[in-house]
Specification:
The structure holds two protein chains of two kinds. Chain A is of the alpha+beta class. Chain A has seven helices and twelve strands. By secondary structure, chain B is mainly alpha-helical. Chain B folds into two domains: 2-109, Rna Polymerase Sigma Factor, Chain: A, CATH 1.10.1740.10; 127-198, Orthogonal Bundle (Arc Repressor Mutant, subunit A). Helix content of chain B is 68%, strand content 0%. The chains are: A alpha+beta, B mainly alpha. At the A-B interface, helix 1, helix 2, helix 3, helix 4 and helix 6 of A face helix 3, helix 4, helix 5, helix 6 and helix 7 of B. The structure holds zinc ion (ZN).
C-alpha cells in the first residue's frame, strides 16, 4: 500500500505533458504501483480529452488527408522492442521502466559508489534530470545531505526511514532545496529505488565532505 | 459495431460525432483496417489537433505536421484503444501530447498502463473491483463544460499552452496560490462527480 504520492501539481503536469521525460518516468513508475494516482491521471487525461473535443478546429490544407492516406501502408520504422527480463525483474520493476532498464536487474552494470550504494544510470536525454536505479544494503545510513534542486525517489523494493517517516514499495518521496535529510535503509532487506535528480546533491556533514568526491551524484 | 462504423463513416464531414460513433470508427480501423472509417476520424480530429498545436505555440505548418503524425499513430495503434479505459478523445489527447513531445522536444513520455496497475498495485483493491473508466471521459467532459470561466481558462492554458503554474500566474497577474487553488477547485469538482467505484 503506497502512502506517499506525488504532489497534486506534479500529477497535473504529468497529464498535461509538461514534465521532462525523466520526471514523467518517475510519475509513471509510481502510478503503476498506485491505483489512486493512476485513477487521478486517468481523470486528468479525460480533462485533456474534453479539451480536444472543444478545441477550435483550424482548416487543414487540401491534400492533407490524401497525404496521410498514402502513408498508411508505410512499414513502421521502429517497433519499440520490449527487452527480455527475468521474472524477478518483471515482478519488481514497473512496466514503464522496462525499456529504460533494458536488462534484468542482476545483469545491469552496477557501479559501487562511496562504498555506500550501487547505482546504474538510465539512458535519458542529457538535458533533463539525472535518472538512476540505486540499490542499498539493509541498514545503510546515507550521510546527511541537502539538495540544490528537487530529488524524487520511487521505492521499488525494500524500504527506508527518513525523519521518522517510512517509505516502502511504490512510495514517491519528493524532496526539494529546502530539505536536508538522512535516510536509513530498513534492516529487513535490500532497498531498490528509482531516483530522479534535478541538480547535484550538497552534502552537509563531515562524513559528507569525505564522501563527496566519490558520490558524484 | 461494424454496421454502426459504416453508418458513422458515411456521415458528412464537419458534423460532430458522438463518443459511440468515434469508438465504432476506431474499432473499424483496428479490426478491418477500414480507410473510410479512418478518413472520418481524420476529418473529425485533424482540424482540432491543428488548433491544439497552434495553441501550443507552434507555427501553422508544424501544427499541421503534428495533426498528421498524430492521425498516423491513431491508424497504427488503433488496436490498443480500449473503450473500457477511455473515450476516443482522451486516447487521442494522450497521443497528441506524446507526439508533440516527440516532435518538438525529441523526448519520450512514459505512460501508465492501466491494465497493469490493478495487478501491480498491492493496495487491497482486487482486479475484480476494477470497474471501467469509460464513464470518466463523459463525466469529466460535463464538469469541464460547467466550470467557472476563470477555472477553465487556467486548465486550458496548462494543457494547451504548455505553461507552468508560475507562468500562468504571471500572465494572468494572479498570485501563484490563486492559480493553484483554482486548479484544485476544478479537480475536486471532477473527483466529486466521478462514481466512487471508478477504480483502476
Ligand atoms: Zn499515488
Amino acid at each position: 500500500m503506497t502512502h506517499h504520492h506525488p504532489p497534486a501539481d506534479v500529477l497535473f503536469d504529468y497529464a498535461a505533458g509538461t514534465l521532462s521525460e525523466g520526471e514523467a518516468l518517475a510519475v509513471a513508475a509510481h502510478a503503476s504501483l498506485c491505483s489512486r494516482c493512476a485513477r487521478e491521471i486517468a481523470m486528468l487525461e479525460a480533462a485533456g480529452g474534453s479539451l480536444v473535443d472543444v478545441a477550435e478546429p483550424m482548416a487543414i490544407s487540401h491534400g492533407a488527408l490524401d497525404a496521410v492516406l498514402a502513408r498508411l501502408d508505410e512499414p513502421i520504422v521502429i517497433a519499440p522492442r520490449q527487452p527480455e527480463l527475468d521474472a524477478e525483474t518483471r515482478r519488481v520493476v514497473p512496466k514503464p521502466l522496462h525499456a529504460y532498464v533494458g536488462r534484468s536487474l542482476k545483469e545491469l552494470p552496477w557501479r559501487t559508489v562511496g562504498r555506500m550504494y550501487e547505482e546504474v544510470r538510465l539512458p535519458l536525454p542529457a538535458k533533463g534530470p539525472k535518472v538512476s536505479l540505486m540499490r542499498l544494503k539493509p541498514g545503510t545510513l546515507v550521510p546527511r545531505h541537502g539538495h540544490r534542486g528537487q530529488e524524487w525517489t520511487v521505492v521499488l523494493a525494500g524500504g527506508y526511514h527518513d525523519g521518522g517517516v517510512s517509505f516502502t514499495r511504490g512510495d514517491f518521496d519528493a524532496k526539494d532545496a529546502s530539505h536536508r535529510h538522512q535516510p536509513r535503509v530498513d534492516d529487513d532487506g535490500e532497498c531498490l529505488c528509482l531516483v530522479v535528480l534535478d541538480a547535484p546533491l550538497k552534502l552537509t556533514g563531515t562524513i559528507g565532505l569525505f564522501v563527496n568526491p566519490f558520490l558524484r551524484i | 459495431m461494424v454496421a454502426s462504423a459504416k453508418r458513422a463513416s458515411t456521415m458528412l464531414a464537419g458534423q460532430s460525432l458522438t463518443h459511440e460513433q468515434l469508438g465504432a470508427l476506431v474499432h473499424a480501423v483496428a479490426v478491418n483496417r477500414d480507410r473510410a472509417a479512418f478518413a472520418a476520424l481524420f476529418q473529425h480530429f485533424a482540424p482540432r489537433l491543428k488548433g491544439f498545436g497552434i495553441r501550443r505555440g507552434v507555427d501553422a505548418a508544424a501544427a499541421e505536421e503534428l495533426a498528421q503524425e498524430t492521425m498516423l499513430t491513431v491508424w497504427r495503434k488503433a488496436e490498443t484503444f480500449d473503450p473500457a479505459k477511455a473515450t476516443v478523445s482522451t486516447w487521442v489527447f494522450t497521443i497528441v501530447r506524446n507526439k508533440r513531445i516527440d516532435l518538438f522536444r525529441r523526448e519520450g513520455y512514459p505512460e501508465v498502463e492501466l491494465s497493469e496497475v490493478a495487478e501491480a498495485a498491492d493496495d487491497g483493491e482486487s482486479p475484480e473491483q476494477s470497474v471501467s473508466l469509460s464513464q470518466h471521459g463523459q463525466v469529466v467532459r460535463q464538469v469541464m463544460k460547467d466550470l467557472p470561466p476563470e477555472q477553465m481558462k487556467i486548465i486550458q492554458m496548462a494543457f494547451f499552452e504548455d505553461k507552468s503554474h508560475s507562468v500562468i500566474a504571471s500572465e494572468l497577474k494572479l498570485p501563484l496560490g490563486t492559480v493553484k487553488s483554482r486548479i484544485r477547485l476544478a479537480l475536486s469538482r471532477m473527483r466529486a462527480a466521478l462514481p466512487e467505484d471508478a477504480r483502476v
